[in-house]
Amino acid sequence: xxxxAKIGIIILALAISxxxxxxxxxxxxxxxxxxxxxxxEGLGNLCVSEENCRNFCHTNRxxxxxxxxxxxxxxxxxxxxxxxx
Length: 85
Prior knowledge:
The chain is mainly alpha-helical. The chain has two domains: 1-35; 37-85, no CATH class. It is built from four helices and no strands. It has helices spanning 2-31, 50-59, 61-70, 75-81. The relative contact order is 0.11. The model has no long low-confidence stretch (mean pLDDT 82).
């Protein structure tokens, strides 16, 4: 009888873990865009204004290109790179 109880507890723990993972993927991932807003004056955490971003991207073009490829709807990416990111 104790063996069945242990197996039941293990199955319950696995089910709760699986539900937690599914909840995480369905709630956290869709809200992840809030970390790097698509609209605003800067490029996420890279720079904060158009002038600042122009200077930053002049010497860090690779980082800016990568950010803009991942956030192609960012208005500043379209200004800096002509919509190509």
